[in-house]
Amino acid sequence: MKAVMLAGGMGTRLREETEYRPKPMVEIGGKPILWHIMKNLSQHNISEFVICLGYKGDQIKDYFVNYLTRVNDLTVHLGSKSSTVYHGNFDEEHWSVTLADTGLNTMTGGRIHRIQKYVEGERFLCTYGDGLADIDIDQLLKFHQKHKKIATVTAVRPRTRFGAMEIDQALKVKKFMEKPRAEKWVNGGLFIFEPHIFRYLESDCVLESDPLENLAKDGELMAFEHNGFWQPMDTFREVQELNVLWDKDLAPWRNW
What we know:
Strand order of the largest sheet: 7-4-1-8-13-10-14
């Protein structure tokens, strides 16, 4: 199964970082968050990736084109018959990465629509390139295969931004709760799609609008509930929080 990565947005809420590079290239522990997502998925035997490029997509292309140089020691032989010898092994050597330019201002559904030829006739995973989670992909896939619908969305209950108080009827504060989980489920940004998903997509549609709404109306969208770790990276504060987890060796998404 291939993984389609939505990596073309401008990331305007993270302007401190995205003024100079695309959001998926913002680093956690010295590696782009996009790499962390792909590394996590690769532990579930997903090694073929289609990356939907847009804003500053050339930087993502350069990263993967020069990946051997980035991760290995090397010896360069100069002269008329120059050559390079790479020293070392790395798990990513079996990855296949398709880098597809899907347009600067294309919406999420339109980006998927434009890479149809790379996943033609196949079931595929789709996710955003700016969030981390410890979702059990194997259980997600089993759930999807069992219900036999066109699409599965991962549902999460994010932690609220602020702490909460429990107050009794006499207005006495009983206890404080540090960032409790929200009551409502939200789109966790990781999907499994069957090939029929393209019947719901147009060249410049927003995935989270008509396509998902129409799938739901047709009874073709199921939700896989995930109660574990899930963290989008929408603000500089969240970048810092993810880096703290990594630096303290407490990163829940690290399964390698």
